[in-house]
Design a protein that fits this description.
About 50% of the residues lie in helices and about 20% in strands. It is built from 23 helices and 17 strands.
């Protein structure tokens, strides 16, 4: 796409200019086309051989050609850049509205050329009214989609900058031309560029290299408003006629949003990695085409090994089982895997738990979680999975089982002790009942008859009273009263029990005083204590009647 009249300095820029999506042409001082890029040939429908060496008057209708030639003449004479809307008819007779940017380029020898960039705006003109309502959105889209073309000297000074720089960076071309790139590039990126250029220049001097080669750099630029942006620059050297690099041409595309998303992704991956580390989770994939599982360094670290030791990051499922699955678990794991795979499940698969043996001999427990990704026909295209170390959970479960077993044993032992206590209590009650029966029989048969005989003898009143007390006492011994009293009112003193027994027998305070050889006042004190302990204080309940009810 080059004429023989074009200097080699521009001829070497062919790879860069052919990458530009907009049509580009170069005219010599006689207004003849000495270069057109692929985009211009494709969009005009005019083949390359018709372009080269011809003027606009030979290619387009007279009215269109005259306007184009007049504008080109003014650009050559004034040296000022021109941006105009023009009409152009393609090879099929279609008329297009185009925005043409023309600027003069002077090579190292002083020869002038006109570089033109065309942009199709036919549809934009037709939809201009509709686009006014979304002008702001359109402007942002245009800025993000616009590449900036620049030519730098070897000392990194701007020699040419395309008009798109105004929208992209906020500078006009005139504000950047003859300025060093440090004017709108961060110090870190400048250091990176200088190093890259020095390296490439050393390669130029030391070896035979492809003159059309390019380099892709990601650089942080400074906009006119002071904000920064990231650009991807495709750069290549422009060479003199003798092949020496004399200038640098670059195409810069705004990748700020891409860099932001990459940073968000990097942080997300870091957070995910940290979360997986905390949860003892490692990641793997399965490639059904090659029938191999794909691991990574973190996965191998989980097993106490390395990729170098295992011979790489890929191995079959069978090899994985042989190397890492506990020998006792291998048959069960194989059977489970075959059963699950036979179901051809889309999405998450049932979890599989098994033991693994690390390279250091330690046995760990793991659970395998995986999901299948199928194509539209139901064919497996990828399986993604994770292995999680659940050894601590298993140890806790085992400890819980051990404690449950221990509790069950203790519960059984307690039940045995309880049964034994019940037997002992039953025996005690039986012994108590036997003893009570024996006492009752002995009193009735051995003592009561003599009391009856004594009552029939000649006795004084005092003797009769004492005999009555003895008889009453013996009757109480063989009655349930004292048992009830002892069980319900064990907090009575010995004297209170004696007085309560006499009150129950119908004795008054005076009689009780005489019988117990204490004062009548002392008897009254004990009566009050008995009422208090029985909960009868401040009540009109008869004490004798209450005691008889017990």
């Amino acid at each position: 796409m080059w004429s023989d009249n074009l200097p080699k300095a521009l001829e070497y820029s062919k790879p860069v200019l052919d990458c530009v999506g907009d049509p580009v042409f170069i005219l010599d001082r006689q207004y003849r086309n000495v270069f057109v890029n692929k985009a211009l040939c494709e969009k005009s429908g005019i083949p390359l051989e018709r372009w080269l060496g011809r003027t606009a008057q030979e290619l387009f209708p007279k009215e269109q050609a005259d306007i184009f030639m007049e504008d080109a003449r003014q650009v050559f004479e004034t040296g000022k850049q021109s941006v105009k809307e023009e009409q152009a008819t393609d090879a099929y007779g279609n008329v297009h509205t185009i925005e043409t940017t023309k600027t003069v380029y002077k090579d190292a020898t002083g020869e002038q050329y006109l570089i033109g960039v065309l942009r199709e705006i036919t549809e934009n003109k037709a939809a201009e009214e509709a686009l006014k309502e979304s002008e702001h959105r359109y402007r942002l889209l245009a800025e993000n989609a616009t590449d900036v073309i620049s030519v730098l000297t070897l000392d990194l000074t701007y020699k040419y900058v395309s008009p798109s720089v105004k929208q992209a960076w906020g500078f006009s071309p005139e504000e950047l031309i003859d300025q060093p790139i440090s004017h709108n590039m961060t110090a870190e990126s400048l250091e990176f560029v200088v190093s890259a250029i020095r390296e490439d220049l050393e390669r130029e001097e030391g070896e035979t290299v492809d003159p059309d080669r390019g380099k892709v750099l990601e650089l942080e630029m400074i906009r006119k408003d002071g904000s920064t942006m990231w650009v991807e620059v495709k750069a290549s050297f422009l060479h003199s006629d003798n092949g020496d690099p004399i200038e640098i041409m670059g195409i810069a595309r705004d990748i700020t949003e891409r860099k932001r998303m990459e940073e968000v992704l990097r942080r997300s991956e870091l957070q995910l990695s940290q979360a997986m580390d905390l949860a003892d989770i490692v990641y793997w994939e399965y490639d059904p085409v090659e029938n191999v599982q794909i691991f990574n360094d973190a996965f191998y670290a989980f097993y106490g090994t390395t990729a170098e030791r295992e011979g790489g990051y890929r191995m079959t499922g069978e090899e994985y089982r042989k190397r890492f699955v506990h020998p006792d678990d291998q048959p069960g794991v194989l059977e489970t895997v075959q059963r699950i795979l036979a179901e051809n499940i889309t999405g998450p698969l049932p979890p599989i738990e098994h033991r693994v043996v690390r390279r250091d001999g330690k046995v760990r427990h793991t659970v395998v979680l995986a999901t299948n990704v199928m194509d539209a026909s139901g064919r497996l295209i990828r399986r993604y999975g994770v292995n999680q170390d659940i050894t601590k959970r298993k140890e806790v479960e085992e400890e819980l089982r051990s404690r449950e077993h221990e509790l069950e044993k203790k519960s059984f032992d307690l039940q045995e002790v309880n049964s034994a206590l019940k037997v002992l209590l039953k025996h005690r009650d039986e012994d108590k009942s036997t003893l009570e029966n024996a006492i009752h029989t002995n009193v009735r048969e051995l003592i009561v008859p003599y009391i009856e005989r004594l009552k029939n003898t000649q006795m004084s009143d005092v003797q009769k009273t004492y005999v009555g007390i003895v008889e009453s006492g013996l009757n109480e011994i063989i009655s349930p009263f004292l048992h009830k009293l002892g069980a319900a009112y064990s907090h009575f003193t010995k004297t209170e029990i004696q007085i309560a027994n006499l009150i129950r027998a119908g004795k008054g305070s005076k009689q009780i005083a005489e019988l117990l050889n204490i004062s009548e006042g002392t008897v009254e004190v004990h009566r009050n204590n008995i009422r208090k302990k029985l909960g009868l204080k401040h009540k009109t309940v008869n004490l004798q009647a209450h005691l008889l009810s017990l």
